[in-house]
Write a structure and sequence with these properties.
This protein has 682 residues and is of the alpha/beta class. The chain is built from 27 helices and 18 strands. The protein has a six-stranded parallel sheet, sandwiched between helices. A five-stranded parallel sheet has the order 1-2-3-7-6, with helices on both faces. The protein has a five-stranded mixed sheet with strand order 14-16-15-17-18, covered by helices on one side. Strand 4 and strand 5 form a beta hairpin. Helix 2 packs across helix 4, helix 2 packs antiparallel against helix 11 and helix 22 packs across helix 27. It binds thiamine diphosphate and magnesium ion. The site of thiamine diphosphate has 18 residues, from helix 3, helix 7 and strand 4.
Length: 682
């Protein structure tokens, strides 16, 4: 990476283009003003957007992209590129302008002109997978910063494993809002603890947020705050390219993560709106833009970048070609085994998965295990983790309860990044966002652990994983009143429904050790979706005793206990309640009622199945009953509005779990009674 100052570095930010023309290369100011002009013109054209941030941070971004960032617009997926995260996603025009100016082929001027329009790649906030060069979806403040921590973890871990072919930085632009969000504290603390020295946060220290001056709501000393978390922190004039460059140059050699607070003026250049919240999130208006053009010395019409300026930017976009070529050489110099391992990791290959799952299921058939599904998950992980080197586990300080750390897993630490287990601390939100960053980085399949009830504490990051189509696996144990004595604060009741409401998220609730292994397989195979595995604290019997190679959970639901004769009743259940359903089936048989039991480990897969398959498993028994120790919401899709539901209608209580199941009426007797009532037989 080149950290050399360009000959134009010392040109004052307010310098006019005439001065630039006199210098051998295009002046910094002209380069930065190109960003400002594109941002204000695109927002104006869209009649919507955020010009203030791109105009304020144009100098910082120009220094970063023209002198430091290692990237190749011709190969946006180059594994060893520096990652750039625009955590302040509302400033999306900053990023789009940079992508256009540096020469990402997809980011044409036409796309800039169609900012925020349907079908353009210039969405309101940067969206991963939608726009080449966008490393992660941002917009919900704080997420980008926390995601970047995961990217930086991934880099350190893969560097420990593969040496010199993984050697890059993660740069973040974060705003006041990013740093006010609670998630930022989790992210900062984790990054400082792990001494992620290749993480550099450029803080847009403009003292303004939507409501006005930051002093209305915040008086944190960010420098002290970051230092307290183990970072190096300094403050620079964010409009002084030389000062910015020196700070970033210094960051290159840091032994800890780096914060550079860049004092900027929001809406820099706007005659009356600069420095004011009014430039944050609305078009500047024709008069203000005219004034800004004069003030900045930008005489060109909207969307026109003079050839010399564009060409200087395009050269900046080619700066890392030699670094890219060197990297390719280093890659080719790897020994064959390491090379194959690296390629396989980058391609997210899972050759060993099917065999490992088959072996787990064979073992369970030979020696059935009547254990909690959290323990069944640990049993599965004992085989999966060694088989799949991409898996990095963790827990938010509930390792012993979540059973996510296998016997041989070493903890990751600042002293040893090769460890594959992360003690995230009590930081569910930071954990989930960091997992997104690791998955986005590539080469890693992160999985975590916490209690299901705390899915609320990481929901925004899970939602983004779903939106971005990232494979992260959340092991969430203690999945119902079945956790017992800890009581209603810890007993999820609405969480399954709430998670099922997130599009593209797979929510698995396996009923026994065999289903747990199968659900793990499905979660790992879901390359473009996150998963939650909701697992019990309490023991459950292993209902499937025979070895079956096929993954029955793949269809989302299957008949786990058939009826003797044509079923009058179909009982659908998930997780620990499948056992209750099977007991109810026996009670009904004793009353001469034929019932079948369908296990539903994954609603999403069932509801996505072809209609014929879905109909076949749902069946046509006149009575349908759902059983789940949670609220009914979502169940009507399976049992219909006339179906009976045995579950929870409110919060749980603190007591031994067997007492709770009786108290709340989630019992075989209650299921049987509901069936008989529907049949008019009670
Ligand atoms: C979690 C979250 N809450 C609220 C918002 C809405 N929002 C967008 S920007 C912003 C704050 C703007 O202040 P700052 O982050 O300092 O950005 P600047 O105006 O300086 O560009 C808010 C509240 C959001 N995007 N994300
Ligand atoms: Mg601000």
């Amino acid at each position: 990476m080149s950290a050399n100052a360009s000959p134009t570095a010392a040109v004052a930010p307010n310098a006019r283009r005439e001065q630039a023309a006199a210098s051998p290369a295009v002046a910094h100011t002209a380069l930065a003003n190109a960003i400002r002009a594109l941002a204000m013109d695109a927002v104006e054209q869209a009649k919507s957007g955020h010009p203030g941030m791109p105009m304020g941070m144009a100098d910082v971004a120009t220094v970063l992209f023209t002198r430091f960032l290692k990237f190749d617009p011709a190969d946006a997926a180059w594994p060893d590129r520096d990652r750039f995260v625009l955590s302040a996603g509302h400033g999306s025009m900053l990023l789009y302008a940079l992508l256009y100016l540096t020469g990402y082929p997809a980011m044409t001027l036409d796309q800039i002109k169609r900012f925020r329009q349907l079908g353009s790649i210039t969405a309101g906030h940067p969206e991963y997978g939608h726009t080449p060069g966008v490393e992660t979806t941002t917009g919900p403040l704080g997420q980008g910063l926390a995601t970047a921590v995961g990217m930086a973890i991934a880099e350190r871990h893969l560097a420990a494993e593969f040496g010199g072919v993984v050697d890059h930085k993660t740069y973040v632009i974060a705003s006041d809002g990013d740093l006010m969000e609670g998630i930022s504290q989790e992210a900062i603390a984790l990054a400082g603890h792990l001494k992620l020295n290749k993480l550099v946060v450029l803080f847009d220290d403009n003292g303004i947020s939507i409501d006005g001056a930051l002093s209305l709501s915040d008086s944190v000393d960010q420098i002290k705050r970051f230092e307290a978390a183990g970072w190096t922190a300094s403050r620079v004039d964010g409009h002084d390219p030389q000062a910015i460059a020196s700070a970033i140059a210094k960051a290159q050699e840091s032994d800890r993560p780096v914060l550079i607070a860049c004092k900027t003026t929001i809406g820099f250049g706007a005659p009356s709106k600069a420095g004011k919240a009014s430039s944050h999130g609305s078009p500047l208006g024709a008069d203000e833009i005219k004034g800004a053009r004069e003030k900045l010395g930008w005489t060109h019409p909207p969307f026109e970048i003079p050839a010399d300026i564009l060409s200087a930017w395009r050269k900046a976009g080619e700066r890392s070609k030699p670094a890219h070529a060197d990297w390719t050489k280093r890659l080719n110099a790897l020994d064959a085994g390491k090379r194959a391992a690296f390629d396989s990791r980058m391609r997210n290959e899972l050759q060993a998965l099917a065999g490992a799952v088959a072996a787990i299921k064979q073992s369970l058939a030979a020696t059935p295990k009547d254990i909690a599904t959290r323990s069944a998950s640990e049993f599965a992980l004992e085989s999966l983790v060694p088989a799949l080197p991409a898996m990095i586990g963790g827990s938010a300080d509930l390792t012993g309860s979540n059973n996510t750390r296998t016997k041989t897993m070493k903890a990751m630490s600042a002293a040893d990044y090769s460890g594959r287990f992360i003690h995230y601390g009590v930081r569910e939100h930071g954990m989930a966002a960091a997992m997104n960053g690791m998955a986005l980085h590539g080469g890693i399949i992160p999985y975590s652990g916490t209690f299901l009830v705390f899915s609320d504490y990481c929901r925004p990051a899970i939602r983004l994983a779903a939106l971005m189509g990232q494979r992260v696996v959340h092991v969430m144990t203690h999945d119902s009143i079945g956790l017992g004595e800890d009581g209603p604060t810890h007993q999820p009741v609405e969480h399954l429904a709430a998670l099922r409401a997130i599009p593209n998220l797979l929510v698995f609730r396996p009923c026994d050790a065999v289903e747990t292994a199968e659900c793990w397989q499905l979660a790992l195979e879901a390359k473009n979706r996150p998963s939650v595995l909701a697992l019990t604290r309490q023991n459950v019997p292993q209902l499937s005793r025979d070895f079956l190679e096929r993954n029955r959970c793949a269809a989302g639901a299957y008949e786990i206990a058939a009826a003797d004769v044509k079923a009058e009743v179909s009982i659908f259940a998930t997780g620990s309640e499948v056992t209750i359903a099977v007991e109810a089936q026996k009670l009904l048989a004793a009353r001469g009622v034929s019932a079948r039991v369908v296990s539903v480990p994954c609603f999403e897969l069932l509801l996505e199945a072809p209609e014929a398959a879905r109909r076949a498993v749902i069946g046509d028994a006149p009575v349908k009953i759902g059983v789940e120790a949670a609220i009914r919401q979502g169940w009507d899709a399976i049992i219909g509005s006339d179906g009976a539901f045995v579950g929870m209608t409110g919060f749980g209580a603190s007591a031994p779990y067997k007492d709770l199941y009786k108290h709340f009426g989630v019992t075989p007797e209650a299921v049987a009674a509901a069936a008989l009532s529907k049949l008019g037989k009670n």
